[in-house]
TrEMBL record:
A GO molecular-function descriptor: isopentenyl phosphate kinase activity
EC number(s) per entry: 2.7.4.26
Binding-site residues for substrate, renumbered to this chain: 53, 58
Organism for this UniProt entry: Branchiostoma belcheri
Name of the protein described by the UniProt record: Isopentenyl phosphate kinase
InterPro entries registered for this protein in UniProt: AceGlu_kinase-like_sf (IPR036393), Asp/Glu/Uridylate_kinase (IPR001048), Fosfomycin_R_FomA-type (IPR024192)
Residues passing through the membrane, by range: none
Residues the entry annotates as binding ATP: 13-17, 54, 164, 185, 230, 234
Site (Transition state stabilizer): 22
């Protein structure tokens, strides 16, 4: 059931690759976390922050097959391996949550860490239960909920991985914010992986039809240990947010340490050529500036 009256202005996603070194186990990018804190400290109004796990959790989840759960395992030892992997994944992701909320609170932001495990449940990786009442109450009381990708219980698999992007998509269906801002380690969405030597080009705008069809060609890739699907799933989440809101919610993607990030989060503006906006085809974006 849709929530009303919260006045949620924006959901901010801190990408796992932006706030951690995704190739090195449990290595935060403290400069990026501080940049995020600086951005959020300038925000006025009601916001939700969701961060990816990056190198906190992905390695453990991949090693133990947490995303696929344990219900199909043939031996007790195999089940135990997945369950211990579940626990180790959670230990890791909550370390990063603590680092981020500690930095936020130190900047005077009333940030409250919220782990999905306690109140979110999936069925074959689809969200079937999510307690958003406590999120609503935090927003109304002036707190900033900080959520994260998490290992959660799953009715069919036993357990699985709930990505931060899936969390955001669900929250958008409940709170209907006018925009979602993805803060990443690159300037936006490119026509191919930006690390490729061929010369990737930033895509300033992605038009999406109501059926989810894109009007651009994008080649994607995902690192081997990324259990949440990499940029392909993130792009799908952005498309779903735009289409399911009938264009009422737009998605902005920009670099976490750019001046554009401040404008996107604080002012709701994305100057042309400084990031990527995903919007419904034939809908003029209200915050576009030249």
């Amino acid at each position: 059931m849709a929530e009303t009256g919260t006045g949620l202005e924006c959901i901010v996603k801190l990408g796992g690759s932006a706030v951690t070194d995704k190739n090195t186990l449990e290595t935060p990018r403290l400069d990026a976390i501080r940049a995020a804190a600086d951005i959020i400290s300038q925000v006025r109004g009601r916001y939700i922050v969701v961060h990816g796990a990056g190198s906190f959790g992905h390695f453990q989840a991949r090693e133990h097959g947490v995303v696929w759960g344990y219900r199909d395992k043939e031996t007790a030892a195999e089940v135990q391996t997945v369950k211990l992997g579940f626990c180790r994944t959670r230990q890791s992701v909550t370390k990063l949550l603590h680092l981020i909320t500690e930095e936020f609170v130190g900047r005077g932001i009333p940030a409250v860490g919220v782990s999905p495990l306690s109140s979110w449940v999936t069925d074959d990786a689809s969200v079937v239960k999510a307690d958003t009442d406590n999120i609503r109450d935090m927003l109304l009381e002036g707190f900033v909920p900080v959520m994260h990708g998490d290992a959660v219980l799953d009715r069919r698999r036993g357990c699985t991985i709930l990505s931060g992007d899936t969390i955001i998509k669900h929250l958008c269906g409940v709170f209907h914010p006018p925009r979602v801002v993805f803060l990443t380690d690159v300037a936006g969405i490119y026509d191919r992986p930006p690390e490729q030597p061929a010369g990737a080009q930033l895509i300033p705008e992605i038009q999406v039809d109501q059926d989810g069809k894109l009007h651009v060609s994008i080649a994607t890739s995902s690192q081997a240990h990324d259990v949440t699907g990499g940029i392909a799933l993130k792009l799908k989440s952005a498309v779903d947010i735009v289409t399911e809101s009938n264009g009422r919610t737009c998605v902005m993607v920009c670099g976490i340490q750019s001046g554009t990030a401040v404008r996107a989060c604080v002012e709701g503006q994305l100057p042309k050529g400084t990031g990527t906006i995903v919007q419904l085809n034939m809908c003029k974006h209200p915050d576009e500036v030249t």
